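Pinned message: reference record for Glycosidase
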Amino acid sequence: MVEIKKEGIILRKTDLSFENEGVLNPAIIQENGKIHLFYRAVAKGNFSSIGYCILSDPLTIEQRKDSPILVPEFEYEKHGIEDPRIVKIDDLFYLTYTSYDGINALGTLATSKDFKSWKSEGIIVPKIPYEEFKILSESEGLIPEKYKRYNQFQISHTNSDAIFLWDKNLIFFPRKINDKFYFLHRIRPEIQIVSVKNIEDLNYDFWQDYFSHFKDHILLSPKYDHESSYIGGGCPPIETEYGWLMIYHSVHDTVNGYVYNACAALLDLENPEKEISRLPYPLFKPEEEWELKGEVNNVCFPTGAIVKKDILYIYYGAADERIAVASLSISKLLKELMMFAV
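Predicted structure (tokens):
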């Protein structure tokens, strides 16, 4: 097993009204010698916006804005914007997050060239009611009980055209592959993958075809005991000589409720729909007091990572209330993953 160092909490909530309930689930990126961190800031009533700070090194906050860098602007995100991830493709930053209107939670994209001015590209995942999802994907005999179990709210409101399957954990790969954008998304309980030539092509016809061949787009399914409830995306994939390193989250149910772990897998560099390897155990799990107790107990939720020399720093939400960091040798992790290559 790979040795993990829990570096501890680097960001806590403050008395500022936009983040007085919690800070969690950050996006992180290195640019021009600086480390930029975008985080979910939660105000009373569970209304979220995106906070921002700059790190002088992987563990030290240098500057922290006292107001959000992104706030809800549209009806589809009136209850908050949550759980950002960020990559840079060519000369553009792609910041993805979950828009929440109080009923629907859907993956949304904003772009920027400078971290200051952001252009909303809107919701880019499908707005699909459960009944339509069921009809399309049943052409493959695909809707097993697990999809029914994890989408009960949507199933119970099938008479409404405005209630869609939750589609979260929208995460872009940090470069085009074979001249296509690739991104992950998650309709519980599995992780799905999308490839598309242009973002504008993600229209109704695209998703109709996608769900008619839904089985082909399932990237990872729960496999091990620590994944037995469901899994979802975590950090943007990291390109390595062995493949795309994917840090994701898994969930399993216990007598004390759900437990969220950080996990690791490898995907093929030129064909990222192909899983090369997966650790059969969690990379790390809730063990410290600040991971075990918080707004939601027993949570390590990884959403961002950077590499410095041989050290991989993983940034995660701890108990849905604070932001912490774990570090490890990326070369040792890759070696361990290759031991489980399929």
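Pinned by admin. Summary line: The first helix runs from residue 130 to 137.
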